[in-house]
Amino acid sequence: MLTRHLKCHSPARRHVCRCCGKGFHDAFDLKRHMRTHTAHLAKVHGQPASYAYRERREKLHVCEDCGFTSSRPDAYAQHRALHRAA
Predict the structure, then answer these.
(1) What span, in angstroms and rounded, lies between the C-alpha atoms of 79 and 68?
(2) Where in the sequence is the domain holding 74, given as residue range(s)?
(3) Helix H segments across the chain?
């Protein structure tokens, strides 16, 4: 928890929103922020979400070190191995 808290004081924002460019210290904060975009699409543009209510959505794997994102667990594991090797 201390490590997570210390990220709040760092100027670097590793997790950047693809829609608006806003940066976050933590992958969870970015995921929570992304919900504002999906709500906006439905409310303002009349585009419903591409998933049904309570339907399980595709899981995203986000690298805490660099922000790399993948929906494939094998690609994420391969990416993480590169960090460990460096």
Answers:
(1) 8
(2) 2-85
(3) 2-7, 27-45, 73-85
**CA contacts within 13 A on the Cβ side of 16:** 8
- Split into its structural domains, the chain has a count of 1
Query: For residue 53, is pLDDT > 60?
Result: no
- Tokens standing for 6? 């210390």
- Number of residues that make up the chain: 86
29 CB-contact burial (10 Å; exposed 0-12 / middle 13-18 / buried 19+):
middle
Letter for the amino acid at 46? G
pLDDT at site 78? 92
Q: Which of 84, 65, 63, 70 minimizes the C-alpha distance to 12?
A: 65
> Does residue 13 contact residue 25 with C-beta atoms inside 8 Å?
yes
